[in-house]
Amino acid sequence: MKTTLVSTLVGLDVGHYRLGRRLGSGKFGTVYSGIHRLTGDAVAIKVEPEDSRTPRLPTEASVYKALGAQYVPRMRWFGRAHGQYALVMDRLGPSLRSVQREAGMRLDLVAVQRVGEAILECLETLHGTGWLHLDVKPANILGPDPSAARAVAGCASSQWTLVDFGLARRWCDQQTGEHTPDVRRRGVVGTGRYASLANHSGEPLGRRDDLESLALTLAFLHEGRLPWSAHDSALPAPTKPERFALMLAEKQRACVDEIAGTLPSHFREYLRAVRLLRYDERPNYGVLRALLSLGG
Description:
- The chain is α+β, with helices and mostly antiparallel strands.
- Helix content is 35%, strand content 17%.
- The protein has 10 helices and 10 strands.
- The radius of gyration is 19 Å and the shape is globular.
């Protein structure tokens, strides 16, 4: 069946849900608002053409199923409709990227600490199911409240949730539990700005990489920039590989103190600790949690 054009999906039904306006789109899917046709419950619906070269939504649905509703939005339905894969989940509040912009690009220490504690809990649970996220960043962390201003002021740590598992991959064999082989890669998996140094360098991927991406996310939320932020845009390097090469060089040069900026010393210790991990080493989540909780 020929794939339905995304622009024609508004008003159509997937399962018991009706697609509303488009909320956003990315490389691997488009997200719509939606409602349950009988109860009127507000939901978010992510769609992806069935004939995509490398469909991601089936993997994403598998991760949501593995996690249940712990630290992630509840998945309500997954299936095929109108030539699309469709994943329906609870609709939550704004992303931290939106919250940060509304707050003037810098979140206070208490807010950053709450985010760190919540997402570390989520990552520990995710890793326990055998999955890596590989795209931890402010745009993929949501609060519960539709008002960005209220989200900044009063969101408890347990209310921040992680979304978008389109790049998720298993770190271990499902049958044996053994870590995936030591294989070098070409290119960055995820978003260059928040990718770990090992990820950016093409080293094997492991749980450490999600944890370092969380550290870079927290530094960006508090400082409003990272040492390599100048290389996010198209200039001065004209191509993406050239920009990523400049970004990698800056990541290799920048010390932990420069990355952390004005964040307190325990955040720096967290970043140092995760960077010392081998790709196949199990992180000590308790120690890392204690470092993020100091002063809280």
